[in-house]
C-alpha cells in the first residue's frame, strides 16, 4: 500500500516537473468508426476542420487544438487520443488521399511537420 502511494506521488510529481499538460478527455468516447464509415459524418467533420462548413462542439474543439497537435506530433495526447489520431490519419491517407492532401496544405503548407507526423504514425507500429 505504501509503495503504491509513493509510486503514485512520484508519477504526479514527475508530471508536474515535466510540465506536461494533456488535452481534455471530454471527447475521448466519440465513436470514430461510425464517423469514418459514414461519408456524411466524415464530410461534416472534414468541412469543419478545413473551414468549409459549420462545426459541432467537438469538431470546433478539435479544430482549435489541431495546430498544436501537428506542431507537437500529439505530444499532449493521451494514449487513447494518439490511437484515435493515428486511426483517422491512416484512414484518410489510405481511403481519402485528396482530403489528406488538402489537410496538409492547410495545416502544414511549408511541409515542416510532415516528417514528424509520419514518424508519429510509425511509432505506433514499433510498439506493437
From TrEMBL:
Q: Which domain of life is it from?
A: Eukaryota
Q: Which key words are in the record? A: Signal
Signal sequence, renumbered to the chain: 1-19
**The keyword Transferase belongs to this UniProt entry's keyword annotation:** no
This protein is called: Ejaculatory bulb-specific protein 3
